[in-house]
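Contributing new complexes? Match this layout with 2-OXO-4-methylpentanoic acid.
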Amino acid sequence: MKINLSPNQNPTAPADREAKIAEGGFGKYYTDNMLIAEWDEQSGWGDATIKAYGPLSLDPATSVLHYGQEIFEGLKAYSQPDGGVSLFRPDANAKRFAKSANRLALPELPVEDFINTVTELVKHEINWVPKNFGESLYIRPFMIATEVGLGVRPSNHATYLVITTPASAYFNPNKAVTVWISTEYVRAAPGGTGAAKAGGNYAASLLAQKEAATQGCDQVVWLDALERKWVEEMGGMNLYFIKGSGKDATVFTPKLTGTLLAGVTRDSILTVARDLGYKVEEGMISIDQWRDGIASGEITEIFACGTAAVVSPVGAAKSAQGTWTTGNGEPGPITMEIRNHLLGIQHGTIADKHGWNVKVK
Ligand code: COI
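Output block (do not edit by hand):
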């Protein structure tokens, strides 16, 4: 895919840009440029263009606006000790984007085009990459169905875009989130779109998220659709349970059954935990095993993970059956060790043994 340059002629002044980066948060300010490419059933992918960030003009009958045929990704660029910038595992996001496209009947973007377009845009926006530990430039590639028409069918036209936003903590990593275990709503069912990163999955999660808030909780925990007892995910993030303590601890996560999203951070933590000397296990955990594991002291820590928040400790869990709290409700030592190790690799302060960082500059 050729990338044409037509960059913003009026970029943010350096002082303003620095002030925006310093404000932190997540998704508050967008950088000066975005990337856009169009696909057509007849002619395939056209060239990409890097141009000024700005609104899209869409016909009101554009199919994504009606039937939600949309997918997205999230990945990050981190500043490095030598002044450079690296992307973290962009190949993993590229492959998942292609899988999501397939599930949503959108055209697959070749992995190399995903990586090249993301790399070129980040090069353009390099001055927007925050320098502080734990901060990054969050990259949001997405694809929308842009055929105009109300017929329900796979779109014969699609638009791929990449936008970027400076990001600090998504959740406060030093404060455990409280979760509401929903037995009323489900996120994903076998044969559905749970394994795809599709906007519709997130839209369908919001009412349960609202219910969690009504219950005084920060986030919702999803159970499986069939038995409503097997723990799957938290909000838009994967979950980890620490069983035992010290170096004998087991780092456990629900296995990928086809209804869970295969998180890149989830996958990275399986490796990091092993590197740190822990036993690692993927399996099934029921809501009863969660409650009993807390009561017996077997489960010592719980955390959620995702690209945006990296690692976020989970404290109290509330359900129709009652409330149970992990440890003293504070972030646990293994959670913080894994978090700091992963962030260390991403920021280049800990050796990147697995070749995950891809240099942009
Ligand atoms: C992530 O954890 O990166 C997510 O998927 C949440 C994101 C949609 C903001």
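Reviewers usually confirm one structural detail per submission. For this one: The mean pLDDT is 96.
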